[in-house]
Amino acid sequence: MNRLSLFLKITAVIFLTFFLGKSNVIAQATVCPTTSSYTYGNYYGPSDAVDFVVANPTDLITMTFTSGSTESNWDYWYITDGAGGTGNVIATDDGSISTSTTYTSTTGTISFYVDADGSQTGTTFEYTVTCSTPPSCLPLTSVTATATSASTIDVVITDPNSASEYFVTYSDGVTTDTVSPNPTDTAVTLTGLTSNTSYTVSVRAICGAADSSDVSSASATTPCAFTLFHTVRTSRPLCQHVGQSIQMEHLQRDQLDLKDWVAGQVMDL
What we know:
By secondary structure, the protein is an alpha+beta fold. 18% of the residues lie in helices and 39% in strands. The protein has 3 domains: 101 residues, Jelly Rolls (Sandwich); 80 residues, Immunoglobulins (Immunoglobulin-like, Sandwich); 42 residues, no CATH class.
């Protein structure tokens, strides 16, 4: 009788442990939309992740936060596109999480957790998870801008849509110009720019009539246009002197230095 009672107790413990464990896993895979909170403890990690999934397999799933922070420099929060903190890392950091950023997963799953040490913890994370139909014209994967001369910038567009054309503008903070006609290639060169000037390039993919992507931007600064001899052995960009007076005696000294250097080269021949 005692053996039977012990057997039944052990069986009950095993069953409850398995059942409760499975219940936690099921509870974590919440179908959006939902609003909830996450309070982490010491030694938390991926096994303590909360997971959310879409009801419609083609939907996007997003997380936004209204508050939450970790112990700076020691505890790190993670948002991934796979269950249990797996997959690609969408975002990670320590300290406060952004309350103005929308974190989006395209896999149908989004996961959040904190990787914590064994000392103090941060504050509770308050968040909302939503699902949405993906746009027909997806955001650009990336836009890069590289100054290739004092008057040109090369722009490279990475586009998941394979759009037929792009709407490209560039601004120096005062004037905004538009590339015309709309470029059809993902490599664009901006010309006729001002030297020593910072430009912001904005690009939108045009997928069809009244159908375009969100704007993606990049910045680049053109270098100085000319070089002024400062000495024979060194040079200084002319635009470093903007707002400064370049006295004639400096120019004359540079000319004398240059003449002496040329004379020396002739004598060495």
